[in-house]
């Protein structure tokens, strides 16, 4: 069974992260399923835009610590989202953690319900937001990122909008997205593709310049003794040994 659900309505393909039992964590299977679904959307002339959403109460909890994907596979997925010649819209009604913020930032437009929460939790398990920085840093406020990267604090949808991680937020995310999707349906495929290339050129330059180094950093951190201690503590629901 694929961990990606798919529906279509008037040219908008909705891809749903559908592994609620793992809080839609980025497993090898989920990453591979999303890569395949996006490739099919790219090749399908009937798809005008893509909505990326989720089942369950969490959009994405970050890397699956029991079945982590390779860092280069995550980089490939993030680049695929950025480079897809059709707009990708994130629709979030739950929580977003760690690598899930990479998915969010790789989308062109991101909307969330007011009750959604966000956190870069990597530092709390002994790693860092390495490969997800490729789309995150070019698109969000640097002073805010310094705080949330370093502390792992949770923040709400209003703050995520203020610092540039979200485009919009509201009590009814579908009502908020209705004019956005209407606008995408009214736009020409050629116009959408050209406009998206203008918007993503600098983000893709970041991928070209920094992806190899950040992939190596991620692999090194995840294989470290401190990360093993942190991930074990997280899975056992206890404080890591460095907590004061």
Automatic annotation (TrEMBL):
Record-linked NCBIfam families: PRK07827.1 (NF005879)
Record's protein name = Enoyl-CoA hydratase
Q: Mind telling me which SUPFAM superfamilies this protein's record contains?
A: ClpP/crotonase (SSF52096)
**InterPro entries associated with the record:** ClpP/crotonase-like_dom_sf, Enoyl-CoA_hyd/isom_CS, Enoyl-CoA_hydra/iso, Enoyl-CoA_hydra_C, Enoyl-CoA_Hydratase/Isomerase
GO function term, MF aspect, one: catalytic activity
Q: Name one Pfam family in it.
A: ECH_1
Question: Which species expresses this protein natively?
Answer: Streptomyces shenzhenensis
Q: What does the sequence similarity comment in the record state about its family? A: Belongs to the enoyl-CoA hydratase/isomerase family.
